[in-house]
């Protein structure tokens, strides 16, 4: 729980004061236990995303009959307070899923691969935040605002389990802004450059960024454990393994997941994924090429009306989205909406998107999927 | 001089230890006064770039008969030690350029506009680091490795002055890597996203980033003077004014300067310029579309042989350019060289480029122009 306490402390240090932001705050309504709610299990409950699952469930008044917090043996036995009740963290085993309706997984790909099918076998609907099943043709990959129809007939109380995959954070944040435009004018090609926060590599990476920053400011050598090189006051190509085509796995997720979510094998995507010394929200510079003209005013109008999207695009005051503005917020912010000068007619747009990596990029999206099941 | 001392101290804090980098270090040879050298004036001598002019002149053993340090009245009278000699900073006036062969300007656009023509009138060749004359059709805009021919017959000892403009930092860094490829396969379109350092906004911006970082880590409200919003652990759209087409001035420099330097009005460029919390080196994600196929192996070979460029592109060890690696270095580093999946055939490449903003992005490039005059 130390990492999570850390992440929360850091949030208070690094998030803007309320008066500075125009993003909608998530409504905080105390939820209560409900007999008619599903039984929920959280796998990886002590991690950054696991903790955010709890925040989001509470923020959104998600109904539940019971909640079970699962983690590795190392964390088992610790006590977590949630909505004024104390829960003992339980060790994840094959028996953990008996009677569980919804299992929210965020404990890494290998845990998902091992325990996801077991949970399904026991009748749970698994919403998996790892990359383990995302490209599995039988598993829906869902952003609720984008492709809820992909969930098909998956539901609760049908006596059988199912797997639903949560897309990668950078895909979710990009497609939250690109999809409303895609629906209007069909995206043919997308060139994405990311500015990714520490949180994508977990709470330990956030701690490392803070520690290194203190060290560098004190004139000391930075401690490099999570990343092999200095992160403070620096940036570097995403640490995911690089494939033989020269793309790293993070970039290929953007390419492949976009094609799957849009159900469009022909959409062309290229991406360059970079880690920047920011705590918990990603930014993305997105260049779009459309099948038919889409002028910037129409684009702004479309985005203004899009669910889960807020437009911050004031040229006169140079006010555009920043990672800090969206930190701990639900909405993805989009700005710098402009006609691409390098494309003829109105066939191209440039936009700049920011979204909270832990929230909409992971926990919130998963909980929204769970809400669709109710 | 405080800012400069600051920048140097911060350099020692924030630059990597020599063993960590594979970039060539500039050769440091003590130069001496030479009777046959030109007389040199530095306008804006106390600024970050002005101070870097001195470092670069010394590093490169630039011959000079005399050197004159010019600044505003506020700094006049201060003493600067340079190569074991003491120089009094002089106030910039119309008389400052009497007998000056080469004047290196970096004191902002309005100073250049006022005093550049005066210096030319007095017979000086002005190398101007501001944007004042860059788009003037009569003024060459020069990156010595890219378009030295644009300098035409400008030279010293011809009894008449001239103006040469130094391109903007992000243009220089981008084109150092893109031009060798452009020469081979002609770039038709370029999509650039930048990751720009504090130094581009001057030494005071670097100080603000450090101060804010300390404040945020101490749980205090960050002091915002240079920038209107929190910079520490954040990033934001470049602070240059935004034009009616939605691009900011920094982005339009990349568009327009590329067309001028390549002498190609038809090359299509779009750019999104973002400031990231890094001290003094820029990074750029560059997507290229060519007129004819260019495979990534050929591209790597071309870049390996390009002057002023170093290739850092080791996929197995995930070693690619970072701002820290190129800080205080002459070479621009390029990596992530890969065939763009979103373009058919071998007509597209993605690359990632890093270069020191103060050095190759400003002072070094200007001194290299001055060297061409000798």
From TrEMBL, chains A, B:
Pfam families: Semialdhyde_dh (PF01118), Semialdhyde_dhC (PF02774)
Keyword list, A-Z: Amino-acid biosynthesis, Diaminopimelate biosynthesis, Lysine biosynthesis, Methionine biosynthesis, NADP, Oxidoreductase, Threonine biosynthesis
Coiled-coil region: none
GO molecular function annotation: aspartate-semialdehyde dehydrogenase activity; NAD binding; NADP binding; protein dimerization activity
InterPro entries membership: Asp_semialdehyde_DH (IPR012080), Asp_semialdehyde_DH_beta (IPR005986), NAD(P)-bd_dom_sf (IPR036291), Semialdehyde_DH_NAD-bd (IPR000534), Semialdhyde_DH_dimer_dom (IPR012280)
Keyword DNA-binding: no
Domain Semialdehyde dehydrogenase NAD-binding residue range list: 39-154
Subunit structure, as described in the record: Homodimer.
Full protein name: aspartate-semialdehyde dehydrogenase
């Amino acid at each position: 729980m130390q990492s999570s306490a850390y992440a929360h402390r850091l949030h208070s240090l690094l998030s803007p004061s309320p008066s500075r932001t125009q993003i909608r705050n998530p409504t905080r309504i105390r939820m209560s236990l409900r007999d008619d709610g599903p039984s929920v299990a959280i796998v990886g409950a002590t991690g950054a995303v696991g903790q955010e699952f709890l925040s989001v469930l509470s923020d959104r008044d998600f109904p539940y009959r019971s909640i079970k917090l699962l983690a590795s043996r190392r964390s088992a036995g610790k006590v977590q307070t949630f909505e004024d009740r104390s829960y003992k963290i339980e060790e994840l085993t094959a028996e953990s899923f008996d009677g569980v309706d919804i299992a929210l997984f965020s404990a890494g790909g290998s845990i998902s691969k091992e325990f996801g099918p077991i949970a399904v076998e026991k009748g749970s609907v698994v919403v998996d935040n790892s990359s383990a099943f995302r490209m599995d043709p039988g598993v829906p990959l869902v952003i609720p605002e984008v492709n809820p129809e992909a969930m098909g007939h998956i539901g609760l109380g049908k006596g059988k389990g199912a797997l639903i995959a949560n897309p990668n954070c950078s895909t979710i944040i990009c497609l939250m802004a690109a999809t409303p435009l895609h629906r209007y004018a069909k995206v043919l090609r997308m060139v994405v450059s990311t500015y990714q926060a520490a949180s994508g590599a977990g709470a330990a990476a956030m701690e490392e960024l803070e520690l290194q920053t203190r060290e560098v400011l004190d004139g000391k050598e930075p401690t490099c454990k999570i990343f092999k090189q200095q992160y403070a006051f620096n940036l570097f190509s995403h640490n995911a393994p690089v494939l033989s085509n020269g793309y790293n796995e993070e970039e290929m997720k953007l390419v492949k997941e976009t094609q799957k979510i849009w159900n469009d094998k022909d959409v062309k995507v290229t991406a360059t994924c970079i880690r920047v010394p920011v705590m918990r929200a990603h930014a993305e510079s997105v260049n779009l090429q459309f099948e038919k003209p889409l002028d910037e005013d129409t684009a702004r109008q479309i985005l203004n009306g899009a669910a889960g999207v807020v437009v911050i695009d004031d040229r006169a005051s140079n006010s555009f989205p920043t990672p800090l503005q969206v930190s701990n917020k639900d909405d993805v912010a989009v700005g710098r909406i402009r006609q691409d000068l390098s494309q003829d007619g109105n066939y191209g747009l440039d936009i700049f998107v920011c979204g909270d990596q832990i929230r909409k990029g992971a926990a919130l999206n998963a909980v929204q999927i769970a809400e669709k099941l109710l």
